Amino acid sequence: MSQRLSDLVSLFIGLAESARILVIVGLVVVVALLALLLAALVGALRLRRASRAGRRASIAAAEVIPSTNFARDGVPCDPLNMRIVGTADQLAASLVAAGWYRADEITLVTSARISLDAVFARKYSTAPVSDLYLFGRKQDYAFEKPGTNVRQRDHVRFWRGEQPASDGRPLWIGGATRDAKVELSKSNHLPTHGIAPDVDEERAVLSGDLIRTGWVIAEGTAPAFKGPTQAKNAMGDPYHTDGLAAHLTLARTQPVPLLPRLVRQPTAGFARGITRGLRGRLPQAGRDLARQWEERRKQSQGAATPEAQRRNGA
To answer: Could you tell me if 207 and 219 are in contact, meaning their C-beta atoms sit under 8 angstroms apart?
Structure first.
């Protein structure tokens, strides 16, 4: 072993000065990458341990569908104001057709990027969302509609329900909120967003975006709380709601099976092109609902604020 080490040292000394510099730089890069990998693994283990309380609380919730999801420390968090019936492919197809993107996973790179983009007020269309918990696990899917910069966006987390819908397809439980600011999480000190208080408005924004695509063949509401509610989420952000969740049923049209994985940059444009090709295959019921929604939007357009008109596609 010592002879091999001596040979390596002799080989290194015998190199030209420029070659020795390259070797040293290469070693520094390798060590730095290994350190980053170790830090990522340690961080992931710490986050998983920190989320145990949230997982347990989300399992122990007495309701079949709780009113809120849960933060990693087990504290009730954002209201669950969406119910969507459809397969994962149909869910992704409807959202990409509506102009929403699938959020990136939380990593060191995406956390650093969202931090920098928040400082410089830049756009990040697929910025990650913080993990919240329901049914003992973090969200199955997260989608977002970017705003003018990363500090503001519409976004929704979805969990596949424990029981299927009446037609046998999955029932997706979602929490749609609008991010109004960027702040540091109190639990893990990573960047996260503070939500706007009117969560019913965000429910209406997402519902309207989906309905106008033609993918929604039936719409209704379901109770999410016992009645009108004012509360705070785990970050201390206040919100108010009428206590209802939107209940939307998607068309049975079968999109591309791998579509949920394509609704990210740089493949989001390709996925959107696929959904445009499916428009002609959507049932008449979806087109009728889209037309009715457009008529309602025009009727209410005059009374809406400029910001509300912009967010609802006016």
So the answer is: yes
* Shared-domain flag, residues 38 and 57: no
Nearest C-alpha neighbor of 179 from the set 198, 165, 161: 198
Quote the CA–CA distance of 76 and 265 in Å, as a whole number.
32
Q: Which of 241, 201, 220 is nearest to 67 (CA)?
A: 241
Interatomic CA distance for residues 202 and 142, integer angstroms: 15
Full domain range(s) for residue 22 = 2-42
* Rounded Cα gap, residues 17 and 15, in angstroms: 6
On whether both 210 and 160 belong to a single domain, the answer is yes
Kindly give the parts of the chain with pLDDT less than 50.
Answer: 62
Q: Which residues contact 108 (CB under 8 A, 6 or more apart)?
A: 36, 39, 40, 43
The H or E element that residue 61 is part of is none
Partners of 191 in the β-ladder: 184
- Residues 104, 203, single domain; the answer is yes
Residue with tokens 């933060």: 71
pLDDT at position 169 is: 97
pLDDT of residue 26: 74
